[in-house]
Amino acid sequence: MKNKKAERARPVRAVFLVGFMGAGKTSVGQALGSHLGWPFEDLDDRVQRREGRSIEQIFRESGEAAFRHAEHAALREILSELGTSCRIIALGGGAFVQANNADLLKKSRIPTVFLDGPVEELFERCQRQQLERPLRSDIDEFRRLYRARYPHYQAASLRIDTGGKGVESVAAEVVAALGLGPAKSPGKNKS
Question: What is the domain count for the chain?
């Protein structure tokens, strides 16, 4: 607890959003960026640009270990670029679970925000997305992976429940919790 309070006492220049698939990391990140006037970036997009291929291709052609290596390199790159600039960064669902990434983020002292929600709602959100997700059709496997990753997500600086809330409402909670300025009134968009 003491470290989390000390983390928040420093001026916030960046925020990392973590959580399981369907938690709203990208949509909330974009809303936060818009609200604060900070650039938003998705770590998976950075990985794809650096590798010149999609996440699915990296997994299929090179395996998960190669993807995790590329993901870690991209995270290091982002952290080295931050300096005094401000940014919102969304991590892929498995990025924060990797010990080397969690250690890098902890050392950076940049707040990590765990966006969470009821697992059934997260699954339903994934069903509505057009993205290719291997666990989209298997709620039992989805639930198993969520439970396995949950203890890792709890190491984040802050947890925000996204269940039943709109994107703007969640973004406003993050802004208020981190003391980033007055929160805008919640919108009706769902995460």
Answer: 1
pLDDT digits (tens, 9 = 90+) for 54-113: 988 998 899 989 999 999 999 999 999 988 789 999 999 999 999 999 999 999 999 999
Which range marks the domain in which residue 144 is found?
2-177
Q: Mind listing the pLDDT tens digit for each residue in 150-177?
A: 999 999 999 999 999 999 999 999 999 9
In a domain, 125, yes or no: yes
Domain CATH for 135: 3.40.50.300
**Per-residue pLDDT reduced to its tens digit, 15-38:** 999 999 999 999 999 999 999 999
Tell me if 29 is assigned to some domain: yes
Calculated CA dihedral for residues 48, 51, 57, 60, nearest 10 degrees = -130
Contacts of 150 (CB under 8 A, 6+ apart): 20
Mapped onto helix, strand or coil, the DSSP state of residue 53 is coil
Residues 6+ apart with CB under 8 A from 135: 21, 126, 141, 142, 145
183 part of a folded domain = no
Distances in Å between the Cα of 56 and the Cα atoms of 96, 99, 130, 143 are 19, 22, 14, 21
**Residue 41: both structure tokens together:** 């970036």
Distance CA(21)–CA(17), nearest Å, equals 12
Residue labelled with tokens 């080397």: 100
